[in-house]
User: Fold these one by one.
Assistant:
Number 1:
Amino acid sequence: MSTATAFYPIGTPGQAWGPAEVAEWRSRQVRHRSYFDEVANVIERLGERYEKIQYGELDYGADGRFPLFALKSRNWDDALPTMLVTGGVHGYETSGVHGALLFLDQDAGAYAGRINLLVAPCVSPWAYERIHRWNPDAIDPNRSFRDDSPAGESAALWALAAPLRASALMHIDLHETTDSDESEFRPALAARDGKPYEPGEIPDGFYLVGDSEDPQPRFQQAIIAEVEKVTHIAPADARGEIIGSPVVARGVIDYPVRKLGLCAGITDARYRTTTEVYPDSPRATPEQCNQAQAAAVRAAIDFALAQG
């Protein structure tokens, strides 16, 4: 668990941010890595095996323009089940991006001719470069998936998934829970919304977030069993919770995904889940985190295929 303080250096305690505070926050964000070098170039190479599509572009002024890419099965067949994989909705959650790319490189070929696959590896490229949770307007894309989304990242993915909304069988959204959630992102959220910051506890290990409206517990446990071969599963805390939510099964909590505007709710897929890898654990390496994400995708597809 990380150490955090109640103070955040932008805004006035008890008052929600306005445009001036958002502008000050954005001016403090620093580019740490390159979406084009680390992600788009890998997508370009994978485009030799999959159909690369550009499903949008984000224009962030002086920060640059960011094309949004997805990769899909070359021989799409409406008679086959459709599987959707998303990563990098929160750009700072590195293994969500690189785990999706790893799955495409090492695993996805085994499913050719058996499924339709659509993968959006990096939904939030500006945030990927700045290792941040929000987009440049201080909006969390993973609370913004709806028809009238204020986040360009969410609106573009929403439109990409729209033709698959009724037909998708499975959707897995790849995330991380990090120590910086407590040291930076939750204090910033409290400051942005003019609310008091209440410290939380970061779980050590992998867990899943199912949909409380349709939890599919056997699906969730099949993923947990496969991921456990790669990395450890987060235990419940002393209250029987993970990040403030009751543990409903080993390594699983549930959220109302559509009510919260989460990415996992963008289709009517029977099987939906959100992964949460813990990259700051002393028991995990970056490669383990990427492999854990790939294992989760394999397990999700395999279960969905077996159940139909």
Number 2:
Amino acid sequence: MTQPLVVVAAVIERDGWILACRRRPEKTAGGRWEFPGGKVEAGEDPEEALVREIEEELGVGIRITGHLTTDETDAGDRVIRLTCFRAELEGAGPVASTDHDRLVWLEPASLAGMDWATPDLPAVRLLTGSAPE
């Protein structure tokens, strides 16, 4: 059995709002919403990887404030192990992304109405207080 793909994501909160990012159409899961982040590289711890990924994708710095979820999702040809961390911006908010075509700030209750990438759903359910499917 192959090892899961280890991925991290940031649930970036500002003034009670949460950042959601829509994947570019040409990307895997294009057009679906996710929390920004990416793969953990060899030799990185998850927190280091997340800070690096957010800098690369969004051009902003973050401070990780806590662990939210770690879940494994069967993505067809592989399993994705996604760890979501709560985070805060260090400085200005992002205005563009290398991996996303839209960035929106939403109240937690509005998250459930978006078309989320499957690996992000457990974190969305936790943030909205909705029951798992």
